[in-house]
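Shape matters. As here.
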Amino acid sequence: MIQDYVVFVGVNIVLAWSVYVILLAGSLSFANGGFMAIGAYVSGVLTVKFGVPLVLAAPIAGVIAGTIGVLVGFPALRTRGIYLMLVTVGVVVSVKAVIESIDYVGGIQGFGGMVGTTEWHVVALVVLVGCGLWFLSKSPLQRILDAVREDELVAASLGINPVYVKLVCFGVGAFLAAVAGSFYAHYLIHVTPDQFGIVLSVFIVLYAVLGGTNNMWGPPIGATIMTLIPEFVLAADSIRNHHSRPASDPPRRFAGVSQRHHAGERHFDNFTVRRGEAGLKHRARKWMWSLNRF
């Protein structure tokens, strides 16, 4: 159980950082769910079909996803605002559709047989990415990113190429999302295209935004909160239901209540609904009659 929490929190932290890197240059992308899918499937093919170790397959998948991200980002980053977000949404939908049409990786049935991820892989990944972002925040590159994010025209007047900077950040974000997807897939053993839809991409953005994007520590906080709080709520609800169930009420799987009792309840509910509908129709007819008088 603890291992599950460590792995999923760590993967989500890296995913949040993948969005944070893109936000550093003033862009917002919903495509990281698609890049995560690319990393999951490419690394899965390398490990299952060709026997490549996971620690090599993950960065290879990241490089491939990063390259695709740069190729996609070159025309996409020339748009602004809502148009850029729509383009990145289209990337996620396209990646999912392409994966579903490839029988080599299982199509809509998914791809399985991937193993090898441990909590130490994820912890090491989080530490490496965190150290890299910390050194970036202390380097002159941070000021370049700040200039591009705040005002592209001023940055261009200083000799900075805003499109190039945005492309690099887009590629790095795709790389991180793909590596996180590689470890995620090799922990779940089996993945399907439906796991990498637009909803996942929205959650990845929320991880980064919830904790704040002013510094590198905000996205990990947001990812941790959004990962653990639902688990705590489910656990608390389970405990509450366990203690609130009457002693005479047996567990669901050993329920001894007769079917006639449930049938009677359903009959009473249906009768009540029918009476409610009849009353509603009667009031509607009276209201229409009153209007016709005028």
Summary: The two ends are 70 Å apart (CA to CA). Strands lie at 111-112, 190-191. Residues 131 and 294 are 77 Å apart (CA to CA).
